[in-house]
Amino acid sequence: MQGFILRGRFGGIFLGLFLFLVSACSMQKPDNWIDSSKSNETRQPQSNTAQRQSPSEKEPVRVDYLTALADIVTPEIYIYKEKRRLYVIQSNVMVREYPIGLGFRPVGDKETDGDGRTPEGDFYINQKAPLNRFSKALVLNYPDRQHAERALFAGVLSRPEFKEIVSAVDGKAAPPISTKLGGALYIHAGGAHKDWTQGSISLYDSDMDELFKIASTGTAVHIRP
Fold first, then answer.
1. What pLDDT score was predicted for residue 12?
2. What ranges in 54-144 are assigned the alpha helix state H?
3. What is the pTM of this model?
4. 15/124 same-domain check
5. What is the mean pLDDT of residues 152-163?
6. H helices within 54-158, ranges in order?
7. CB within 8 A of 17, min separation 6: which ones?
8. Cβ 1 vs Cβ 8: under 8 Å
9. Rounded CA gap, 137 and 108, in Å?
10. Cα(145)–Cα(153) distance, rounded to whole angstroms?
11. Are 109 and 117 in contact (CB under 8 A)?
């Protein structure tokens, strides 16, 4: 009888300890689940924020060659020499593409008059005019300040010639064409079948007719290698 009582007491003690441990474990589970859910709630907005930031990056250029000429009102011209292509882009949409011919030594930036290279850089159209050989031409503001500064440091330009070019650039006037840098950089007709100009950009006649309607004085022209 006494052994039974002892066993009952010990059994009660063990049963109490077992129930306590089960209760303690069950008390921890909700806390862990809440912490986990809170952690997810904390991380989730960060992930969403990252996703919201992605569209802020510049979107790829779209293509729409069917855009009417009358709707091309704020164009920019991009010329890629290696590709032999001229692209007209408006509001991140490529609206026209033309094959081109370059100077007879197309690789590299222009350094001196007669080197046969097409200049590289950021220019703009400062005049729309006919040439002796072609009925339409877009005149670019070459030489610009960047080419003039490089030529001055290289000893190609004199100080007075440099000042003359910079003065024309600042006044948005046609740069002088009598220096060793040359000038009279055009986009004109005559054919895009080969590189044959003195440094200008040449298009097929029909393409030049269309580009002449699209471009205006002040239109940006970016020439890349």
1. 52
2. none
3. 0.72
4. no
5. 93
6. 145-153
7. none
8. no
9. 23
10. 12
11. yes
What is the Cβ-side half-sphere exposure of residue 167, based on CA atoms within 13 angstroms? 7
**Strand 137-140 versus strand 62-63 pairing type:** unpaired
Contact status, residue 52 vs residue 75, Cβ threshold 8 Å: no
User: Of 56, 71, 88, which residue sits at a domain end?
Assistant: 56
Tokens of 45: 């907005």
How far apart, in whole angstroms, are the C-alpha atoms of residue 64 and residue 57?
A: 21
Lowest mean pLDDT among 19-33, 80-94, 127-141: 19-33
Q: Which residues span the domain enclosing 12? A: 2-56
CATH code of the domain in which 220 resides? 2.40.440.10
Query: Predicted confidence band at 193 (pLDDT cuts at 50, 70, 90)?
Result: very high
- Same domain? 52 vs 75: no
Distance between CA atoms of residues 204 and 136, nearest Å:
12
> Taking 50 as the threshold, does the pLDDT of residue 103 lie above it?
yes
* The two three-digit tokens of residue 54, written as one number: 């992605």
Q: Please give the full DSSP string across 146-197, using - where no structure is assigned.
A: HHHHHHHHTTSS-HHHHHHHHHHHHTTPPPPSSSTT----EEE-S-SSS--B
